[in-house]
Structure formats: structure tokens, C-alpha cells
Design goal:
120 residues; Ribosomal Protein L22, Chain A; two-stranded antiparallel ribbon; 3 helices; 5 strands
Length: 120
Amino acid sequence: MEEENYISRSISKYIRISAQKCRLVTDLIRDMYVGEALTTLKFCRKKKASSIIEKTLRSAIANAQQKDPNTDIDNLFISKIFVNEGPQLKRFRAAPMGRGVRILKRTSHVHIYLDERKGR
């Protein structure tokens, strides 16, 4: 097992959005500084996914401040960010000729790890 080196982390679980939609937004902010990432998320056109990821990122920033009050927020960057699939809610919708068609309501888990990088 590899040893994790990070300042703080934040995990949001069971979010009612598909992992595919969230991954489009996470790819935009990977390896960015925290301030740049928040600005990018604010102006992103994928509103639901960007708001969920923004909340998780703000939680990770708060965790870093809580863990070490001397941490400089401007030096924090997203060292690792990924979205995994969560459990799916299975529902049925009526279809022609008396059949039922399965609908999958997907959920996802968002993981954000912050680290510190000196100098820009």
C-alpha cells in the first residue's frame, strides 16, 4: 500500500448525479491552485456538478485550516481529485405492450485531496 501525503481531504458520498457528468468538471480543475479552481468552478457551465465539487473543495480548504491554522491557503493545490460511482437506485417506467423498462438513477462519490506547493 502506498503512503498518502496530503494536507487535507474531503469526500462527498452518495451525490445524486452521475459520475460521468462530474468527471467532466473534475478534469477541468485537476492540478490547479485552490483559488484558480474556485474561479473556474464558479464560471463553469455544468452548474449542478460544479456546485457539488465547489462545496467539497471548500470543505477540504476548511479541513486544512482546522488541521493547521498556519497553512497558507494560496499555496494549496488539488493534488488528487477523482469521482467514483456510488450505488444506483433502480426504478421502472411503463413501456409499450405492458412491459416495464428499468431506469438507473446514478449516484457518485467525490474525493478531493489538497497538498501544498511552495512558490508559483
